[in-house]
Amino acid sequence: MTIPIDRNPNPNVDALAVEAGKVSNVHSDHMFIAEYAQGEWRKARVQAFRPIPLSPLALGLHYAQIVFEGMKAYRQVSGEVAVFRMERHHDRFNKSLVRMCMPTVSYELYSEAIRELLKTDKDWVPPGPEAAFYLRPFMIATEERMGLHESREFMFMVVGGPFKPIYTRPLKVKVEVEFSRAASGGVGAAKCAGNYAGAMYPTRLAHEQGFDQVIWTDSVNHTRVEESGTMNLGFVINGKVVTPALTDTILDGVTRISILQIAADLGYDVEERVITVQEILEGVRDGSVSEAFGMGTAASVAPIGMIAFGDEQIELSDTNQTVASQIKRQLNGIRYGELADPREWMYRIE
Ligand SMILES: *Cc1c(COP(=O)(O)O)cnc(C)c1O
Fold it and tell me: Alpha-carbon distance 77 to 152, whole Å?
């Protein structure tokens, strides 16, 4: 597959500033775009980042037939650029697309799109220890049509830019027992746009009440913990690394599964099972739950310092996150090429 590259005549990159880690949260100079019509992907190309022409009646705008991914490319200590777990992200992208009645993309198209974009914008990839190039592959239904209908036309795009998580103090989270992120039989396991719009209002209320995030619970009884914000949840319980088992209301996080693997490699017992709100509250009180953390591509591992349930606010005992930070060091070592990569998680660009 050859993807033509139409270079941006007015590149914005300041390679020295990127190298110094001074650029974050801005898009790079180029984007990948391909169009789907009459049952096939066509016109795949890399071009200058710019607005896309879209009918006001594009189906995606009205009915949220939109799916995305979030992944990162890391500047290795050798200077090479490598993407973390390309295949697993591609696989999840296709699963989300099937759920939303959208056409899948081949691994070849997905990986070459990302390779060509990163080769073109390689000066935008910042070095570690925390910074990386955030990649946002996404697809949107573009067919112009009045009324609810499965689209027959789509755009697949990849955009991205340098991103450095800002270090924050350990998160204060609130167990959400009124609103739900996802219901059984719904689309919580798909990375589809509508899930995130629905989460905004409860998240805003949590912010107004002084919390950083909510802990989502099951939508029927609100007794089982599921995720935190847009991250999977992990706990250290009596020295074991424990996370909710996947269901159709939990997103199958790439960071989550990678952390479970690393924890097992480091010799920890790992459990994927039902975790109740009550178990966590009691465990934090009596100290058996020593750590709680979010897991996701953006923040990698985000420590949780306090959990609120109703009027009660309880603090985690191990604020140093002994276990979680050990796992994070290992994960980052693989991502930045400082440690061996026995499972070939890193996809080398050049
Ligand atoms: C993307 C996402 C995650 C984290 O997945 P990663 O693959 O680790 O980035 C967790 N929960 C939700 C709801 C998400 O959208």
Answer: 44
- With 0.90 as the threshold, say if the pTM is over it: yes
Which residue has its alpha carbon closest to ligand 1 atom 14? 230
Closest CA to ligand 1's atom 13: 230
pLDDT tens readout for residues 238-260 = 999 999 999 999 999 999 999 99
Homologous superfamily of 171-335 in CATH? Answer: D-amino Acid Aminotransferase, subunit A, domain 2 (3.20.10.10)
Q: What is the tens place of the pLDDT at every residue in 193-215?
A: 999 999 999 999 999 999 999 99
Show me where the domains of the chain are located.
15-164, 171-335
Percent above pLDDT 90 for the chain = 96
**Measured from the CA of 296, which atom of ligand 1 is nearest?**
8
Ligand 1 centroid from CA 114, angstroms:
19
Q: What is the 3-state secondary structure (H, E, C) of the chain?
A: CCCCECCCCCCCCCHHHHHCCCCCCCCCCEEEEEEEECCEEEEEEEEECCCCCCCCCEHHHHHCCEEECCEEEEECCCCCEEEECHHHHHHHHHHHHHHCCCCCCCHHHHHHHHHHHHHHCHHHCCECCCCEEEEEEEEEECCECCCCCCCCCEEEEEEEEEECCCCCCCEEEEECCCCCCCCCCCCCCCCEHHHHHHHHHHHHHHHHCCCCEEEEECCCCCCEEEEECCEEEEEEECCEEEEECCCCCCCCCHHHHHHHHHHHHCCCCEEEECCEHHHHHHHHHHCCEEEEEEEECCCEEEEEEEEEECCEEEECCCCCCHHHHHHHHHHHHHHCCCCCCCCCCEEECC
CATH code at 15-164: 3.30.470.10
* Sequence-ordered alpha helix ranges (H) in the chain: 15-19, 59-63, 86-99, 107-120, 193-208, 254-265, 277-286, 322-335
pLDDT tier at 28, thresholds 50, 70, 90: very high
The pocket around ligand 1, CB under 6 angstroms, is made up of: 70, 191, 227, 230-232, 251, 253-256, 295-297
